[in-house]
Amino acid sequence: MAGILSAIKLREAGFDDFTVYEKADRPGGTWRENRYPGIACDVPSHLYSYSFAPNPDWSHRFAPGSEIQAYFEGVAQRYGVTPFIRFGSEVSRGTFRGGRWQLETKDGRRDEVDAVIAATGVLHHPNVPPIEGLDRFAGALFHSARWDHAVRLDGRRVGIVGTGSTAVQMVSALVDRVARLSLFQRTAQWIMPQENPAYSDSERAAFRRRPELLRSAYADLGTLFHAFSTGLVDADSPQMKAIEHACRTNLEENVRDPVLREKLRPSYRAACKRLVMSPDFYQAIQKPNAEVVTEGIERVEARGVRTRDGRLHELDVLVLATGFRVDRFVRPMQVVGRDGLDLDAVWAQRPSAYLSITVPGFPNFFLLNGPNGPVGNFSLIEVAELQLGYAMALLELLRSGRCREISPSAEATARFEAERSEAARRTIWASGCRSWYLDDRGVPMSWPWTFDRFREEMSAPRLEAFELR
Ligand code: NAP
To answer: What separation in Å is there between the alpha carbon of 321 and the centre of ligand 1?
Structure first.
């Protein structure tokens, strides 16, 4: 998403000597890699689109993953940037030497470039939990982002570990296909009810005929989501109260069995973890062939999952919907900045960056969707567009000859990070739950202010925060 975006915007700005390195043989990032049953985006599709490339043909309010994948491929083609992508080319190392970045790829190529944009994503490297015996399972076992489509599911006994957005979508998609579905829940989730209606032919035709409808859909949804962001950063806001009410009502009204209802009731506030959206998870999990297993996992054995109460849950397929290692960012790529400074060492404790885009000691290096940026129930496309605008303003300083190297000062970065982590402690994400938003100290790794403030900050770099050489 962010690589295609960068290519389009660089070209528009008159840069024509650039390469997009892509380790796989297709573009699409998270939508190429996540192809589990039920995958969709829970940001409305008319907002989860590039601002400059609205799509009249989205089939549903929340389009399925395959449509989103086709959208990205289509945009790359339509904007003529596919030829700029070098497929099958994984960057293993970038070294800043003599004022330029030297890039090495796994297939042995060496390139020298003036600047690097790291558009490598966040939810990227699967988190495989250290559960004993995973290698002893005799059935099929895979992570949700490494789905094995050769494995038959119909009529089989399927186990899912995890209860995040991924698992919830899978449960709804699989329950009517499988013989038994066992959901291994370590922590219950609040579920925000969210219908997903299809667009009719006439609605799509209207979007096609009248582009202003698409523009206003994008703007209206943006306003709605930004108001939501204001709620998240103020745990006592009216928006938060409304979200909590909607989630609680969903649970109370839609789960009949009081024992199951209590199993599914979280012990923390709604939206403390990333809010899970679903129109039908509760209906799906109440089907007679579904079971929520709340007993902890002892180990995996050849025939299934043994829980701590000694029970063996026999399974043919076990899916790890256990999320991602979200502190990796560009890594495992080795990034070596000025004077041999290694990004892995700089980030040894935890990743950070000035405004989540630039890192002291790493000149002409720009991260999109980097550490501590806006995450949550947002469109990361919108986030990347704003960040890229900011990075391109810095690139312009290089192109115009105003400087040859630009990186943030250590002081500005430390000040930003101190203010950010202080504010993050007051957000709903820090209200008492475990989630992928939290760093090693339990501080949310995200933009802790409103989206409007983010947009304002991205509108132009404050050069006093940077060292220009
Ligand atoms: P996730 O939200 O990080 O959830 C991981 C789940 O695995 C949690 O329920 C976690 O339990 C569980 N888990 C991890 N290690 C475990 C262990 N050792 N034993 C038992 N359970 C374990 O991951 P995700 O569902 O893949 O979602 C990641 C993010 O991707 C989402 O938050 C969202 O931003 C994005 N996403 C979006 C959509 C969408 O648009 N609809 C769909 C999928 C993903 P605990 O809660 O106890 O830690």
So the answer is: 6
